[in-house]
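Subject: Sanity check before I submit

Could someone independently write out the structure tokens for this chain? I want to compare against mine line by line before I put it in a report. The sequence has 246 residues.
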Amino acid sequence: MTSVAIAVMAGLAVAQLATLVTTVYLHRTLAHRALTLSPKLMWLLRILTWTTTGIRPRQWVAVHRKHHAFTDVEGDPHSPLLEGFAMVQFANVALYRRVAADKAVVRRYAKDLPTDRWDRLFFDHAIPGLAIGIAVMVFFLGFWPGLLAAGIHTVTYLLLNAAVNAVGHYFGIQPQSNTAHNSQLLALVTMGEGLHNNHHAAPTSARFSLHRGEFDPGWWVVRMLERLRWAKVRHHEVKLKQPAAA
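---
Independent answer below. Compare away.
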């Protein structure tokens, strides 16, 4: 196998790892409190978030919670119905940063995630974290293959996460009464996040698969962590959110 092929595979693998960390740690655990994780696992996921995405968890949580508060109406940080599909799919990072940089929004929607000394020393500084992640790939793959893998990881991760908002509010089926959509194909490459209609119907559920034939890889990982006693699910019985009265 050529070094280029190895770099491509490594980049895609790291993108999937970052997507898994995003759905289990940032989304299901922090944003919705659908599960709790052991302290050691929380630290591991905190470090992986820093080195594979550079994301500040409280900013991600604030942006996502605001999305739930203003879904597809004025105030939604990244609705394709408001911003256009292409804008959300290909420039979602700009939409995210616009809201994440608003300190008032972060204080309001992530007040349960205050900054600690480790944030101030390390995790609030994206560039050093990403530099460490790139350095690891360069160490194992070589200079140019490592940089290629890092580039593939970055592009893939950003496109997949953007698709959760773009595709998830534009294409697919709507078994529940909300404006989001389910796409099983997207769910398979985003660790279950493509079951977006289900998620909006039951936002406090750690499981996104609600119907026969739906697959949520992130939930499989959560169940494994639960069996290892590294995670505790908030409630196994799915609680559907009642649609707002007309």
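---
OP: Matches mine. For the report I'm noting this point. The CA atoms of residues 19 and 190 lie 6 Å apart.
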